């Protein structure tokens, strides 16, 4: 989502059976910027909830200066989960965009 500072974006992830999976947030790679281009770090938080609103995980920090922002969710029952991504700031020269990925044993469509 572009230019979304302060506003959470919600993504719905249906999981069809008890499973473990990773929730991953990817940013535009820092290696793609010239060395003197970036002035700081873009960061935010990611949360995950069951469809009934109960928390799976809460307030995991995101930063675009790390190799991977991935979170393992273990032994999770079938449900449609809500993943919330909220950026608190983008670096002045950052490309304000990210990709949400889910890796697990079965296919799932993020909406």
Structural write-up:
The protein has strands at 9-15, 19-27, 43-49, 55-63, 69-76, 79-89, 98-103. It has 111 residues and is mainly beta. The strands form 2 sheets. It has a 4-stranded antiparallel sheet with strand order 1-6-3-4, with no helix packed on it. It is 0% helix and 51% strand. The mean pLDDT is 86.
Task: Write the topology of this structure.
Layout: E1 9-15, E2 19-27, E3 43-49, E4 55-63, E5 69-76, E6 79-89, E7 98-103
Antiparallel strand pairs: 1-6, 2-5, 2-7, 3-4, 3-6
Write down the secondary-structure element order: EEEEEEE
The number of helical elements comes to: 0
- Segments where pLDDT lies below 50 for 5+ residues? none
Q: Please tell me what the overall shape is.
A: elongated
Q: What's the end-to-end separation, in Å?
A: 13 Å
Percent of sequence in beta strands: over 45%
Strand order of the largest sheet: 1-6-3-4
Beta strand count: 7
Summarize the structure.
The chain is an all-beta fold. It has strands spanning about 10-15, 20-25, 45-50, 55-65, 70-75, 80-90, 100-105.
């Amino acid at each position: 989502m572009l230019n979304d500072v302060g506003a959470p974006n919600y993504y719905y992830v249906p999981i069809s059976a008890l499973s473990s999976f990773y929730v991953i947030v990817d940013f535009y790679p820092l290696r793609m910027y010239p060395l003197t281009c970036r002035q700081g770090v873009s960061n935010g938080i990611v949360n995950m909830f069951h469809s009934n609103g109960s928390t799976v995980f809460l307030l995991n920090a995101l930063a675009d200066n790390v190799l991977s922002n991935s979170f393992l969710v273990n032994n999770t029952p079938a449900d449609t989960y809500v993943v919330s991504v909220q950026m608190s700031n983008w670096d002045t020269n950052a490309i304000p965009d990210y990709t949400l990925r889910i890796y697990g044993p079965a296919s799932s469509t993020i909406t």
